[in-house]
Amino acid sequence: MLEHGGNLRDAAKRFGRDDWIDLSTGINPHWYPAPALDGKAWHRLPEPDPALLTAAQAFYGAPHMLPVAGTQAAIQALPRLRKPSRVTVSAPSYAEHAHHWAGHGHTMTLTPYGQLEQAVAHNDVVVVVNPNNPTGAIVPAAQLLQWADQLAARGGWLVVDEAFGDTAQHNSVAAHTARPGLIVLRSVGKFFGLAGIRLGFVAACSDLLRELADQLGPWTISGPAQQIALSALTDRAWQTSTRTQLQASGERLHTLLAGHGITSSGTPLFQWWAEPQAEQFWQHMAERGIWVRLFTQAARGIRLGLPPDEASWQRLHTALTQWTNK
Amino acid sequence: MLEHGGNLRDAAKRFGRDDWIDLSTGINPHWYPAPALDGKAWHRLPEPDPALLTAAQAFYGAPHMLPVAGTQAAIQALPRLRKPSRVTVSAPSYAEHAHHWAGHGHTMTLTPYGQLEQAVAHNDVVVVVNPNNPTGAIVPAAQLLQWADQLAARGGWLVVDEAFGDTAQHNSVAAHTARPGLIVLRSVGKFFGLAGIRLGFVAACSDLLRELADQLGPWTISGPAQQIALSALTDRAWQTSTRTQLQASGERLHTLLAGHGITSSGTPLFQWWAEPQAEQFWQHMAERGIWVRLFTQAARGIRLGLPPDEASWQRLHTALTQWTNK
How far is B125 from chain A (nearest CA, A)? Predict the structure, then answer.
């Protein structure tokens, strides 16, 4: 299995402390507060709730959606729904896409963001993470829709992973997914800070969603996840204040890094930079109880999520100062 | 997708009432009470908790286990882990097994329980539900172990679905799964009444569990599911009193049916019989707000789960009397 952030047990095993600040993911540290749950949510086989679907379609602005047990479930299932195809995945980006498209008989290549335009012509499936994880790179919606048309004309797919799209909804292509061949993935884990409930949504044309639902089988979304997400997706007040707060925190992180000579890019939920001494930086932070995400493969560098509270911001500030003065 | 019990939304849509007694599943109506949860259970990416695994291995008496998002996840994944094979599934039994083994290039046949012995010789994979759902039929553990040896000698598998095995632990083969080729599925949903959390366990040799884990990908078990199950699996007092209570309730259901001329079989969690007027019985009960499970395929008949309270027992009693006097 691939390595990911959020693995605090590994951190504790390697560095043996218990006061970790976990900055290794891009998950909102101020999660949506779970409402009181109906006890039957734990008990009953979780039938799909039509109200949840309506709420998701309104929030994401998509005509048709399917709830899935985290974006991960869709990433694993989509490559199974096509005959062997020529597939390219934007690079660097979230590694699970390439990992799963590399199987199932497909011919998978990686394409740097700058060369995606040309790659569209030679492939049946193009996968783009938008905004990108970890670099924050953005492809404009109009560009994506043009690629989707080109691919669809040949029976191809454009898969757009908008897991970090909730703070950039203006650039989402979810509204255009009634057309065949355009597939958008959305995550409830990041913006709402609810990675523990395992819930995401796929927006696509109804035929493809039906095939995907068959592939994934019944009862994929737990009862509690359905109840909490229904509340989160319809809570406009929380969503609005969270967008403002994340915007400010993201800028604060960018500015803090800049103050230490680090030029970073990213989204309101994380910052990333190509760090020449990536392993040393990771080690330096780990020795101070700060768990960051080290990328050693396609994207060589460091990703930092948002500190959860003022004390953590201060510890990060101190550790960065010590790094700069080394 | 196949039809299943627990679909109360369908019941309401067809019969338009809101006072349903749901007897359409075999899930314990007195579910394990969820403990207060750490808020971070909703928030963090759910790392696998070693304590949960230890608790499950102790409760099920198995040397190696893998948590999965409900037995269903394992049922869907296992057929993907073998090259095209000759597979037979015991019949009648839980329909999802045959449904998934029928794909992925396998040659799938159904074998009546009485003829399984002979089928072992001609197949690479044999799937048995023990105790069986919906009939309650039991294959003795010693017999299963002998079949497992025969199959393993040829690189084959015996898959034993013990989803309803928690009230018949003496007949479990989970303790013997360190050997290659014997795979046991256990469900947290039925006995603990926690179908909403999506959690089950697979017991098998470590190599197979590793392949299965790779197949299923990361973060399959939600944070809340891990916390609740850890509590449920280690609560010996609740387990003991629940076993006693389910035994008594199962006998009460059997006796109630017998009093209305119905000879049923099953487990403490459900009773089943081959009902010649199955559709009429189902319709009769639905008109009285009692949702039962109608089987029209392999097992033609009716399955009833346990009524949740005394008022429900009385409504069932009345409806049965009206059926008998029709």
Answer: 22
